[in-house]
Amino acid sequence: MPGKSAEDLIARARALAPEAVFGEPWEARAFAVAVALCEAGQFQWAEFQQSLIAEIGEAEKTGRTTKGGTDYYLHWLDALTRLLDAKGIVLGPELEARTADVGPPPPPQDPHGHH
Amino acid sequence: MSDGHDHHDGNDHHNAPLSEPAQRVKALEQLLVEKGLVNPQALDELIDTYEQRVGPRNGARVVARAWTDPEYRNRLLDNAARAIEELGFPPGPQGEHMMVVENTPHVHNLVVCTLCSCYPWSVLGLPPVWYKSTAYRASAVNDPRGLLKEFDIDVGDKEIRVWDSSSEMRYFVIPERPAGTEGLSEDELAELVTRDSMIGSGLAKPPASRSS
User: Fold this and answer.
1) How do residues B12-27 score in pLDDT, each as one tens digit?
2) B54: which residues sit within 8 A by CB, 6+ positions away?
3) Residues of B with catalytic annotation?
4) A55 occurs within a structural domain
């Protein structure tokens, strides 16, 4: 497109939608993992959607409303792990054990390199 | 939790350890990479695409084309996904079944997903936070007129049609073309098409008054 660099388009898109799409980096990873697995044929998008509807529905039934930010991606993550467990792709206990292994990393004190 | 490196008493917000969901996502990604099911670089690219390259500018181009090319508009109304792909925007995982709904002098359309947050990603990017909130999802159905007031738009006594997206069907709105835009190019028209106007929670912007 003549005269319209990708940067132009991005800048204008940002001006129009200043809200950050993802509040925290893990939200973006959780989002991308779901999309990548769907694109790889591990599940149908509708299956994931049903899992997400179930997560949000259960929460709202008990009065826990969703603001639509990080709380929404928590539902997203729960929906994804629930689906992967049901499909035997990543079992719950397997994920639990690995989550414990990952543990909290050292705090990011100096983003420009550490010693 | 305590790691013996407490530098402060009490207030230790920065330097917080990785949150529980962040740990869980990291563990999940590791396991999937080991199983050969995802590739970390592909994840980076996906995030980059949705954060930076797919966004409401795509939809604005579609609307501007529909405003200026009646045949394109017909194709869009007839088969939205195909007409959108014509402009070089492939359907994402959510974009396959898409329907456009057109605002008229008598009808205002509003899009919501009452159950989760289905949204036409390929034309609008990812949904804004408020779109996913319980409050928006509930009031779009219960009190759409009141909701539109909260968004500061007045549709008078137009009929309001609320479209509930689902995993089967995504909707997006062609807003009314603002008055006084007869001489504008397609690029200039696209500038007037806001994200909210394609959700129905807003209107297209009036043309900037310009000193020629």
Assistant:
1) 444 456 678 999 999 9
2) B89, B92, B121, B122, B125, B126
3) 113, 116-118
4) yes
Scanning A53-72 for CB atoms below 8 A from B yields 53, 56-57, 60, 65-69, 72
CATH number at residue B87: 3.90.330.10
A19 close contact with B: CB closer than 8 A: yes
Among candidate residues A82, A23, A96, the one with its CA nearest the CA of residue B23: A96
- The reply to whether B92 and B157 lie within a common domain is yes
Total residue count of chain B as it appears in this document = 212
Residue B76, in any domain of the structure:
yes
B124 neighbors B59 (Cβ within 8 angstroms): yes
As for how many domains chain A has, the answer is 1
Q: How far apart are CA A14 and CA B76, in angstroms?
A: 26
Mutate to test the interface with B, among A31, A44, A73 (most CBs of B within 10 A): A31
Range of the domain at A98: 45-102
A80 within some domain: yes
Q: How many angstroms separate the first and last alpha carbons of chain A?
A: 46
| Residue contact B28–A80, C-beta within 8 A | yes
The whole-number pLDDT of residue A108 equals 56
Calculate how close chain A gets to B199, using CA atoms only, in Å: 13
B75-121 per-position pLDDT tens digit: 999 999 999 999 988 777 665 688 999 999 999 999 999 888 888 88
Cβ contacts of A68 on chain B, cutoff 8 Å: 117, 128-134, 136
Domains identified in chain B, total number:
2
Which whole-number Å values give the CA distances from A58 to A51, A53, B116, B138, in the listed order? 11, 8, 12, 15
B8 within a domain of the structure (yes/no) = no
In chain B the first and final C-alpha atoms are separated, in Å, by: 65
pLDDT mean over A74-81: 95
**Is-above-0.80 flag for pTM?**
no
Q: Residue B32 sits in which domain range?
A: 21-51
